[in-house]
Amino acid sequence: MRCSPSIDNPALADFDKLLRCAISYLTNCDLSDKQWLQASLPIKVGGLGVRKVSLLALPAYLASAVTTASLQKTIFDSVRPSEDKMLVVYLAMSYHLSTKQSLDSLGITHARQHSVKSKSNATQKAQFLAASAPHSGDWLLVLPVACRLKLDDEVVRMAVALRLGFNFGAPHTCRCRVTVDALSQHGLVCKQAPSRIARHQHLNDLVTRAEVSAGVPAAKEPVALIRRDGQHQTE
User: Fold this and answer.
1) Whole-number pLDDT of residue 196
2) 178 within 8 A of 191, measured Cβ to Cβ
3) What is the domain partition of the chain in residue ranges?
4) pTM of the full structure
5) What DSSP letter does each residue of 96-150 carry, written as one string?
6) Among 19, 58, 95, 138, whose CB has the most other CB atoms within 10 angstroms?
7) How many angstroms separate the CA atoms of 227 and 213, rounded?
8) Torsion of the alpha carbons at 74, 78, 82 and 88, rounded to the nearest 10
9) How many of the other CB atoms lie within 10 Å of CB of 22?
10) Which pLDDT band holds residue 97 (cuts at 50, 70, 90)?
């Protein structure tokens, strides 16, 4: 897209379809048009960072052509090439579309506004705002390393489902007697969820081992503690 003009080429739409199919395959989820639109947004505005090439074709080519114009003139000065007609046409298009902000930023803004309008209820809007919050997509930017600091396939699928609003569970009744819908987000706040207790214990273990490694005396609280009148007492 940087080296040759490809705007309005039908292959761009085909490539976008391949990207959409790849995300659906990797996450084992069928993306709707609304979810694909959100997924194609940059990570910092609530997407997955898998950008649509059909939207990047114009800004990518113009950025490359304009920034290398002086270099091209130096290289081809003796040849005296004819004026780049496609560049002139694309520059005219860019001036028509945007006069104050970059074309890519303009496309992102329009796509984000359309994605917000497509959220039909408060839950979907809250999910999108949470995905757009600062640092909410940092896990998509982390490179996996050898010491087991990586997400397995199921965890990635659940993280993408929570970010885009997939239905990745069947409606059921939780052990706390709360009805859980197909979004299955209740497990993130349920106080009786086994995973919540396991994460809490794992975090305690990590902090304790870190303090012991640093030479700081540390001991975890014993089990079976209850709180009464602001004091810890053993059952």
Assistant:
1) 67
2) no
3) 10-162
4) 0.66
5) HH-SSS-HHHHHHHHHHHHHHHT--SHHHHHHHHHHHSTTTTGGGTPPP-SSS-S
6) 58
7) 30
8) 10
9) 11
10) low
